[in-house]
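This section describes the prediction task in plain terms. A model, or a person checking by hand, is given the sequence of a single protein chain and must write out its three-dimensional structure as a string of tokens. No templates, partner chains or ligands are provided. The sample shown here is typical of the held-out split.
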Amino acid sequence: MKNTDVVLINPMDKTIVRNGLGLSVPPLNLMYLAGALEKASIAVQIFDDDLHQVGPKQINKYISKVDPKVVGITATTATIKESLAYIKNIKKTFPNILTVIGGPHTTFRPIETLKEENGLDVVVIGEGEKNNSRTSKKLH
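The expected answer:
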């Protein structure tokens, strides 16, 4: 299962919309991004943890199997704390993996998001597959 450059994670969604209404949809945002990465000859896998429900503390079992260079995670404002928990746990065990976060929350609060978690390396602003705008701790 190795030879994966990038793992994209859809975090568990514990919001009322997901749990109260039972809505669960495929992570189309990550699918678009994965398509763009594959087009650039980058090996990518998506881990939909809203489907698998392993959580941030157990994600490292999967990460160790695929051994990526980069882990990206998406975040809405409702899932930002959960998304950052994944980053924290991954970086603690795999300090050399580049950690990236994107999504609606980070687009509007990039600097604040970087400051919230020391293990976070890069924030993507806008649509990752179309927009080259990003910010990292090295820039701030």
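For orientation: Helices lie at 16-21, 28-39, 49-52, 59-66, 80-93, 104-108, 110-116.
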